[in-house]
Amino acid sequence: MKLNYKRTFLIGLVFFSITMMSSLHDSLTPKILYSFGVGETLIGTIMAADNILAIVLMPTFGYLSDRLNTRFGKRKPFCFIGSIMAAIFLIMLPIADNQRNLMMFVVCLFFFLLSLATYRSPGVSVMSDVTPKPLRSKANGIINLMGTLAGMIGIVFTSLFYKERILEWEYNAIGDKVPVLGADGLPILDNTVNNIGMYIGVAAIALIAMLIYSFVIDENKLVKEREETERRLGITGEEAVSENNKKQILPKDEKRSMILILMSIFLWFFGYNAVITFFSNYATTVLGISGGGFSKYLLVANIGGVIAFLPAGIISGKIGRKKTILMGISILTTAFVLGIFMTKETPLLYVLFLLAGIGWASINVNSLPMITEFAETRSIGQFTGYYYFASMSAQTLTPIIIGFLIENLSIGYRVMFIYAAVFLALSAIPISFSKHGDGMTEVSGSILERFEDM
Fold first, then answer.
1. Is the whole-model pTM more than 0.90?
2. Would the pLDDT of 302 be above 80?
């Protein structure tokens, strides 16, 4: 049994579309809010709205898509409608910025995030729908590779076309760069700057990717093929499902392992998302990087991810998902520890972000498959929702907490990497005690030998 790489790349267009738009939001929305004079705690709270919506809506839409049956498939209707709405509201963000209308910006941001939430869980579930369990880490590597490519395109757009709207800067007592305030108490802006074209370009590419997926991939056909393959090889089973046939019930030992894995997911997102949320502002205030110059380091991180995604999927097949994730945690923690000492632009920043990309890829490729390993055919969306509940819960709390610390501690933005390193190190503890979901003990030796022969 071999993974169909071409088909998996096409399925990855869903995640490509999601990441294309969300990466622009992740990197630039904090900068736009900062230009409105919004404090870091409130920036963190607004950035957490994405995750609050995800906590409420992603398990719901994952569950609903599990039970939807159309001639287009379970997931495609959510993906098609959600992507169109997300693209429309993404383009509205720079329009609100140009009009210096914070209320309009926040409302458009809310509906953009709402649109993303409607199709993120269904979209990510497609890979597990059509891929046999033993191949999901490798397939997830390709899906994440597609997301990384989308992020890289977004970064290139940012680097080439993003223009800083804040016009004047000065330095505070600890040497951080802060905006000069005008008579209205807000940063002085350059009103000639217009970033609308960049947002339109990103939205257009995301929609084209979704259109290709919609017309090329036949979800219903591929799900039937996967079910037949698993039956033929004896690696499926529909045990432990409740009487109403809607919610899967796990044995106690498996439930304990899944909870431990979800705890680790929560902790590593708690650390990682602090950097994702505030690095663009950190680059300006601490490193002194202007405009979209920060994006070159994010590009290096994405290159690290591209290098590592496929090997991480392959390595997990040899040593197990858990060991591969622990290896990734060690690498990413090392990168964040290095970040603590970075208070000016230096070539070592490239090393830091290359390590971060490799470490995060090793974690990310294997974490979702560990959770969906517990799922039966009818409940893949449900378990994908559990994964996103853990990750989005962390991403809801951490921007608010790190924003508060940045705003109230004397070291300001310099607390960011300390915070991230601590939580990444802690994330290694719960998963070390999990005994299921690793992908190494789910299939008998004779079946594995048959894989080798095929």
1. no
2. yes
